[in-house]
Write a structure and sequence with these properties.
Blueprint (H helix, E strand, L loop, with lengths): L1 H23 L6 H9 L2 H9 L49 H5 L43 H9 L32 H14 L10 E5 L14 E5 L8 H11 L1 H4 L25 H7 L1 H10 L15 H11 L16
Antiparallel strand pairs: 1-2
Helix pairs in contact: 3-6, 3-10, 5-6, 7-11, 9-10
């Protein structure tokens, strides 16, 4: 009888201990966030930062190559409609008003960095520059020190500017035009986590000017009046103090020359980068592009340039390899400036 009673007491004691242990188990409130972050793709985040609506940034495509109509977080939004100007409207795509690089710049410094020249109003007319939103004042390099959940919430849960396909002139032309876009309606959580991972650890920021030296003259124009002269930004000392030009040349030969050609002069596969004019030409040699648009070049080396023909794939590269490549491309003799002669090499 005593043995039976003892067994009952022991069973009760063990059950009590197990229940107590269950209450003591620590559940990390960040566990879901950490798992999402670990599964995120930083390179895809770089693509989204550059061009949020392209299918190469992870959107499912329809038969015409556009993201499928219901791919946005809010299925009532058609991503293509907010990335393309309405019929009859010329100028830059609406993408500038919803993609990260349109306001924060490729270096993450916004109006204090490479986009100091992207003034809201032109010096010649004082009119708003078509297709250019007000550039952000924030510094995205600070994200490296932020908690991952805080970065996620800053992208998704800020409300902000609504989705307006007609927004094509400037950041203050509609209500809440200068507010952060409401990405909760555009980007799904997995894409936002890709951006978080890019901002936190994927981006190669020019910390302590170790990649290049940036010289800024003047300030970003936030007034309604023309500025003369306009602010300018120039780049120098590519590769910093420890870039190795010989190693950079070898990297270029191995990874870049097949499309960009000997000395960056272009090949039959590609005529080189295009976009904003450099030295009054759109087809520019790769050395010229890197030396005049350094932050954008760094970003596109990492993320690739999708939508081009042929598509430029992302190039795996370490920080030191980036320094080496920049040091090599800073040589104006080996990688000269000027317009490309298509199909020359």
């Amino acid at each position: 009888m005593k043995t039976k009673s003892f067994n009952i007491v022991m069973i009760g004691f063990i059950a009590f201990m197990l229940q107590s242990c269950t209450h003591d188990i620590y559940v990390d409130p960040q566990a879901d966030a950490k798992a999402s972050y670990d599964n995120a793709d930083a390179i895809n985040g770089a693509k989204l930062f550059n061009n949020f609506e392209h299918v190469d940034a992870g959107w499912p495509a329809d038969a015409l190559g556009w993201p499928v109509v219901t791919a946005a977080a809010d299925p009532t939004i058609t991503v293509a409609d907010i990335a393309t100007p309405p019929t009859g409207i010329t100028g830059q795509k609406n993408r500038s008003f919803y993609t990260c690089s349109g306001c924060h710049a490729y270096d993450g410094l916004g109006r204090t960095g490479g986009y100091v020249t992207k003034t809201l109003y032109t010096a010649s007319s004082g009119l708003a520059t078509a297709g250019v939103p007000t550039v952000a004042a924030s510094n995205l390099t600070d994200c490296k020190n932020w908690d991952i959940k805080d970065i996620f919430n800053s992208i998704k849960n800020v409300g902000g500017r609504g989705i307006d396909p007609a927004l094509t002139v400037n950041g203050v032309s509609t209500p809440a035009g200068n507010a952060h876009p409401d990405f909760s309606k555009i980007l799904t959580d997995d894409k936002i986590w890709d951006l978080v991972k890019w901002l936190k650890e994927g981006a190669i920021y020019n910390e302590n000017s170790d990649l290049y030296t940036m010289t800024v003259t003047g300030a970003y124009n936030t007034t309604l009046t023309p500025m003369s002269p306009l602010p300018i930004v120039t780049y120098s000392n590519w590769g910093g103090a420890d870039g190795d030009a010989v190693a950079g040349d070898a990297f270029y030969v191995a990874k870049c020359m097949v499309c960009h050609g000997n000395g960056g002069r272009g090949t039959s596969l590609a005529s080189g980068p295009s976009g904003w004019a450099v030295n009054n030409t759109k087809n520019v040699q790769i050395g010229d592009f890197v030396r005049t648009r350094t932050p954008e070049a760094i970003h596109k080396i990492i993320s690739g340039q999708f939508g081009s023909s042929p598509w430029m794939a992302a190039t795996p590269i370490t920080r030191q390899e980036m320094k080496n490549l920049l040091k090599a491309l800073g040589n104006t003799t080996k990688y000269p400036s000027g317009a490309i002669t298509p199909n020359k090499y």
